Structure formats: C-alpha cells, structure tokens
Amino acid sequence: MGTLVFEWNSITQVIGSPILVPYWALINFFVGFLFFAWFFIPIIYYSNLWNFINLPITGFPKIEQLGFTVFFTADGKVFLPNLLQYLTNSTYAKAIPPVLYDATTATASYLIFASLASLGVHTILYHGKEILDYFRTSLQKRENDIHCTLMSKYTEAPEWWYILLFVISFVLSALVCHFGEFMPWYYLFVAIPFTFVCLLPIGIVQATTTVNILPIFIARILGGVLFEGRFYPSGIMTFMVYAYQMQTRSLSLILNLKFAHFLKISPRTLFMTQLSITIMSVIIRYLITNYILIIIPGFCDISSIGTDWPCTSLDLQTVFFAMIG
C-alpha cells in the first residue's frame, strides 16, 4: 500500500500532468491502481499462483550503478546474466535458464495485452460510426465548424504526396534492413500493419485523455517471437524501432496537423516544413553517430560487422533509445 504516492515527479512519470488529464480518466487510474496493487497482486502472490511466492512481490530492482539486472529462475534462485555474452553470443542467450516474472511484473504485462485488446473493442463500439462519418466528410461539408470553414480556403496537401513519401520511405527502409543485415526486409510487412491497426485506437485515447498507451511492450514480444535464434539482437531492436517509432512519429504528425488546423496554417506549408526538418534531422544524426564511431577508439569493433552485435560497449536499452531519438 506504500506504493500510493502524491509526489509530483512520481505521478507525472506514470500519467503525465494530472492537471491535463480529465478527472474521469484519473478516477479510472485510481480505481485500477487500488484494485490491482492493493487486492489482486497480493492475492495471487500469497496464494502462490505460478510459484510467485518464491520471488519478491515486486521483483528485484535494477542496480543502476553497476548497469545490470538480476533475474529469478524457476527454483527461485538469483540469476545474473553476463551482459556482454548476452549481447554478442546468441548461443549463450539460448543457454540462459527460464526466467520467471514476479507477481507485479506478470500482472502489468498481461494488463498491457488486455489494454490494447480493449482499446480496439472500445474504438469500434464507441467511435466506429463516428469514424465512418468523418471518412465521408470533407472540410467543405462541415459548415458548422468555423475552423473547418476557414481551413477549407487553403489548398489541401494531396493524398498522393503522402502515398509517394510512404513508398519512398518503405523502399529505403527495405534496402537498409537488407544490406545493413539488421533484419529481413519483408518483416516490414508485419511492423507496418501492426502500426496501422494500433494507431487509431491509441490516437483517440491520447486525444481525449492526454495519456499515451504505446505498444512498445507488444512490439518487443513480437520481435522476440519473430527473431528467436536469428538476427539476435539487431533484428529485435530494428523491428521494435519500426513498430514503435512509426507509432510515435505518426501521432506527432497528427498532433502537428491538429495544431496547424487551429492556427490556420496551410496543410501544404506544414507538409513541406515537416518533411524538410525530418530530412535535416536524419542527416545530422547520421553524421554525429558516424563521427562518434570514428573518433572514440574501441566504441564498436568495425571488423566484426555482420556478427550478432559489434558494439559491445552499449547495452540494448541505450541503443534502442538512441535509434528512436
């Protein structure tokens, strides 16, 4: 019960600013927290479901100073994997004994799956008809909305602009994945539909509650299933970046389009601005990364390119957030 805190920094890390979140969403958070943290998790822990009682109820914390995490095996013993071997040797990774989740982590994981499933059902039941109506409606046909009336005076950015940009981006991504040996390029056909299915439900929740429910956990699980024993760990990381980052970038673009809608900025102007900034950002990031790899000795073993993981000085989490940055 001590996990109930009113410290501002702790609260904002979980739900963002409670000042911006609607009160009904906060009530949902609070009720869900009370039920799972105070009742459900203690019940499954002390009833020894799945041998949870062999582990700490909230798992073992990551030791940040030493840069590693300890895990628990099926018999309740502490297991400390060798991070370098884990990253660079897929044979070692396969030899790791089965690792158990604690009661809290297991509950959180299942709730993440349940939340995405419920998002889809909620979107269909509560917003399905509204979504279909909006697809059939143009700016010119919404005379009752002053913002749409004013924005209709601008020339729209043609849909073929977005389609062409998508095709070019897809081809470049496929080439990078193939020739860079990150993952088989055809797995993009899994990452993109995954993003497409999740985008609308997640966007609706974010627009109405300011709460981000991003499917990074699901993307990680999918990557682990697809690349078990192959392209490890670069394939998993690449799939996660495409599946997760397409979500965040798409929502960011929608946010900017909505912002421009209220400020009466031309859609074509916004499209060109977004595109030019993105291209500049990619070039600058590539040059900085390449400079770091060259200037810092031993940062990555360039001669080992093509092996499981040449940059043994970086852990997966650091690489992931560098890739999506």
From TrEMBL:
<dbReference type="InterPro" id="IPR004813">
    <property type="entry name" value="OPT"/>
</dbReference>
<keyword id="KW-0571">Peptide transport</keyword>
<feature type="transmembrane region" description="Helical">
    <location>
        <begin position="160"/>
        <end position="179"/>
    </location>
</feature>
<keyword id="KW-0653">Protein transport</keyword>
<dbReference type="GO" id="GO:0016020">
    <property type="term" value="C:membrane"/>
</dbReference>
<feature type="transmembrane region" description="Helical">
    <location>
        <begin position="107"/>
        <end position="126"/>
    </location>
</feature>
<dbReference type="GO" id="GO:0035673">
    <property type="term" value="F:oligopeptide transmembrane transporter activity"/>
</dbReference>
<keyword id="KW-1133">Transmembrane helix</keyword>
<keyword id="KW-0812">Transmembrane</keyword>
<feature type="transmembrane region" description="Helical">
    <location>
        <begin position="265"/>
        <end position="288"/>
    </location>
</feature>
<feature type="transmembrane region" description="Helical">
    <location>
        <begin position="217"/>
        <end position="245"/>
    </location>
</feature>
<dbReference type="GO" id="GO:0015031">
    <property type="term" value="P:protein transport"/>
</dbReference>
<protein>
    <submittedName>
        <fullName>Uncharacterized protein</fullName>
    </submittedName>
</protein>
<feature type="transmembrane region" description="Helical">
    <location>
        <begin position="185"/>
        <end position="205"/>
    </location>
</feature>
<keyword id="KW-0813">Transport</keyword>
<dbReference type="Pfam" id="PF03169">
    <property type="entry name" value="OPT"/>
</dbReference>
<feature type="transmembrane region" description="Helical">
    <location>
        <begin position="20"/>
        <end position="45"/>
    </location>
</feature>
<keyword id="KW-0472">Membrane</keyword>
<dbReference type="InterPro" id="IPR004648">
    <property type="entry name" value="Oligpept_transpt"/>
</dbReference>
